[in-house]
Amino acid sequence: PEAITVAELANRMTERVGDVVKALMQNGVMATQNQTIDADTAELIIEEFGHTVTRVSDADVEQVIEQVEDNPEDLKDRAPIITVMGHVDHGKTSLLDAIRNAKVTQGEAGGITQHIGAYQVQTEGGTTLTFLDTPGHAAFTSMRSRGAQVTDIVILVVAADDAVMPQTIEAINHAKAAEVPMIVAINKCDKPDANPTKVRTDLLQHEVVVEEMSGDVQDVEVSAKSGKGLDELLEAIALQSEILELKANPDRAAQGAVIEAKLDVGRGPVATVLVQNGTLRQGDIFVVGEQWGKVRAMENDQGARVKEAGPSVPVEVLGLNGTPEAGDVLNVVSTEAQAREIAEYRQQVAKDKRAAAGAATTLEALMQKA
Ligand code: GTP
Ligand code: MG
Asked: How, if at all, do strands 182-187 and 153-159 pair?
């Protein structure tokens, strides 16, 4: 860290705060326990106490959570991650519900509790699909801005009685910017005023040319209400994911992305994590954004306790020391010391950034006043 409070420095060295304050004083630095001292001063004190100095830098962080390239022979097929997007009320959630109810394996039908905004569906053909029902576009945008590319396929839901609307366009732009293939689901085709052709021509204006219009974007007419077209939609997904040849290495330290996170009164910070590579296990130590933790327990999308989660599997993770943000990347590391150090380093970087931004704003305000 670039700076540290006197109390924290004492804590890290397991020395008494009073002794550290005294040592600082002897070096001409007057500081109380809550005051911050710079890294050079801290280093001096650490050496005086006979400890060794380890400074964390961007490079160190990169090294600890190094993205080792997987050997091709270690890669195994993984489920596609599909995000459903579209304008308000165009039927995103209904469509997902319909897919789940119609296509979940026997015995599970109907009785599924959607604990988290991400869940897996087994198709009759035996393939597994991971769906994300992100509420609105905010989560998706923040994920992208944080560099967490979570989705493999976007299903663009457009209601046939309403055609292309502002949030439809936003969704198109997101998918294009993320370079994620799209499948258009023209929904509400059961309605008497449904006009799928208008949807297709509207989309043309936004450079989405569907197959019906001789383009290469798959389009399917569906109805979440009647169940029409659901099989075709699943086929379209299967076809698209085959093209993508999605693979991951289950035998490595897990890396994932936070889909959502909250502070639960009873359970503490809880994060829904989508594992992207490797396998996340109970007891694993991890950093996630500016937080860190140790997996105390995990629950799958049906609220069942699980001991591990492989690629493309969404799980609720307990055991965090703070609440991360949607889009934060999770990396499993070897030791708690590493995890803590990286998290603290990131917190410090974020704090410095905010301070710099704050200073700039103040300066700007002053200049405007002058
Ligand atoms: P937001 O999450 O608020 O953006 O909405 P949404 O896109 O998830 O839409 P939702 O699934 O909540 O559906 C909105 C309304 O449209 C509900 O009243 C649904 O019953 C209705 N609806 C959804 N799909 C269909 C459909 O295929 N046919 C008909 N007739 N109604 C539908
Ligand atoms: Mg919804």
From this structure: parallel
Q: pLDDT per residue over 15-52, tens digit each?
A: 899 999 999 999 888 888 888 888 888 888 988 888 87
CA dist., res. 85 & res. 91, Å (int): 10
* Alpha-carbon distances of 201 from 82, 157, 211, 298, rounded to whole Å: 25, 15, 12, 46
Residues 84-136: tens digit of each pLDDT: 888 888 988 889 888 887 544 333 344 343 445 788 988 877 889 999 876 55
In this structure, which ligand is nearest to the CA of 222? 1
- Give the pLDDT score at 361: 67
Distance 87 CA to ligand 2 centre (A): 10
| Separation of CA 19 and ligand 1 centre (Å) | 65
Report the 10 Å Cβ neighbour count for 335: 10
Torsion of the alpha carbons at 140, 350, 258 and 95, rounded to the nearest 10? -20
Choice from 94, 199, 233 to test ligand 1 binding pocket (greatest atom count within 8 A of CB) = 94
pLDDT of residue 275: 96
Q: Atom 4 of ligand 1 has which residue's CA nearest to it? A: 88
Using CA positions, which residue lies closest to atom 15 of ligand 1?
Answer: 89
The rounded Å distance from CA 92 to ligand 2 centre is 5
Give the pocket of ligand 1 (CB within 6 Å): 86, 88-94, 187-188, 190-191, 223-225
